[in-house]
Design goal:
With about 375 residues, the chain is α/β, with parallel strands linked by helices. The chain is about 40% helix and about 15% strand. The strands form 3 sheets. Strands 9-8-7-10-12-11 form a 6-stranded mixed β-sheet, with helices on both faces. Keywords: ATP-binding, Cytoplasm, Kinase, Magnesium, Metal-binding, Nucleotide-binding, Transferase. Pfam families: Acetate_kinase. It is found in: Cytoplasm.
Length: about 375
Amino acid sequence: MQTQTAQIQGLIDRIGDQGSAHQYRTKSGSTQTFPVLIENHQQGLKAIFQVLSELSLLTTISDLLCIGHRVVHGGEKFCQPALIDAAVLAEIKKTIPLAPLHNPANTIGIEEAMDYAKGVPQVAVFDTAFHQTMPDYAFRYAVPTQWYAEQGVRRYGFHGTSHFYVAKQAAQYLNKPLETLNLITLHLGNGASMAAIAAGESIDTTMGMTPLEGLMMGTRSGDLDPAIVFYLSRTLGLANNEIDNALNKQSGLKGICGENDMRAVHKMADEGDQQAQLALAMYSYRIKKYIGAYTAVLGRVDALVFTGGIGEHDAWLREQCCSELSVLGIELDAIKNQQSQGDLREINQAGSLAKVLVIATNEELEIAQQAEQCVVG
């Protein structure tokens, strides 16, 4: 795999807000932050291209090979990156009911980029695409078939770009073709999901029709009895949007102990806060339970891969998730687990049947690579 290095990485945050800011970091490590009012996506693109020009990274917009766009939801239509034209954009808009919080913003970004950088190929890379290899018995819900056929009610999965990236990195490290490997990948951040990868393809993942299903997360509940929604509506008189907000933004770690930043939760737990201790126990238990389930589904696990902000940096959590899993062939090395150097490291004992790897994810690089491949083949 050819090594590629980002010349510049940046972020424009809180577009349309008084607190908006433009931040970027160059290849040399220099970081600049400009508190500046960015009223809309068009102004954001203008600010980005201005910086690229000032740093002599871009002479004209036409110098660009392509622009890659992360699109959260591609529905069943997209299982690969897509070169964006009017027809593709129309299909992306059709998925807005499936991702009402994300796809509208993704669409605006695409439209503004197409207008601002006329003639530059635009490529959509979908969070859901990697999971489109799931078999029907894994992605279907046991609900009326009409719901699936007409409303698209099924499991789609998310974080696919990250799961695919670290799976490829694991294959490279193990010096084996991805198509020969069975992996369990764990993307653990404020949002969290796991994937069961058989012969290089996703066959199951924890998130569902929306990112709410699956693991306990920073502010999302993860798996729960759907009848709880009806119970809360009857007993508390909560409207659907109130319950939706509570399950997505007031639950998870935050719902149990009041904090969704894992570092703060650890600090509280270390200071004896019982709710924080409970939150950590719940969080790691859910992950451990899915490791067991996915091991059963895969039959053989070549590697367990931790990634994401929490997965990469939380040694305590990795130890809890892997404890007493020797029966599954997973044996963590406590000393290696505490080490934090490098973007890819092996933290299992020498005799572990399954490797345990920590791999830094790079979704931006994966989007760039997929966009390039879509354009040049």
